[in-house]
């Protein structure tokens, strides 16, 4: 297999991978909407304190997204 052919195959693989990753992200955000809302409500109006004030909501959101 030549260099050009191999480069084309790798390019196609990356496009497929990007498309799958995008679909997975959309699905995860849709399924975790309630956790996203809870985190957004907690974070609203905060700046630096969001880190410690919303730790529980952030953890719940991350656990959902990782599933």
Automatic annotation (TrEMBL):
<dbReference type="Pfam" id="PF08583">
    <property type="entry name" value="Cmc1"/>
</dbReference>
<comment type="similarity">
    <text>Belongs to the CMC family.</text>
</comment>
<keyword id="KW-0496">Mitochondrion</keyword>
<protein>
    <recommendedName>
        <fullName>COX assembly mitochondrial protein</fullName>
    </recommendedName>
</protein>
<keyword id="KW-1015">Disulfide bond</keyword>
<dbReference type="InterPro" id="IPR013892">
    <property type="entry name" value="Cyt_c_biogenesis_Cmc1-like"/>
</dbReference>
């Amino acid at each position: 297999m030549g260099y050009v052919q191999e480069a084309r195959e790798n390019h196609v693989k990356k496009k497929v991978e990007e498309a799958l990753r995008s679909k997975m992200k959309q699905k995860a955000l849709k399924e975790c909407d309630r956790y996203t809302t809870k985190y957004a409500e907690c974070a609203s109006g905060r700046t630096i304190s969001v880190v410690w004030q919303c730790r529980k909501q952030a953890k719940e959101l991350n656990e959902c997204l990782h599933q």
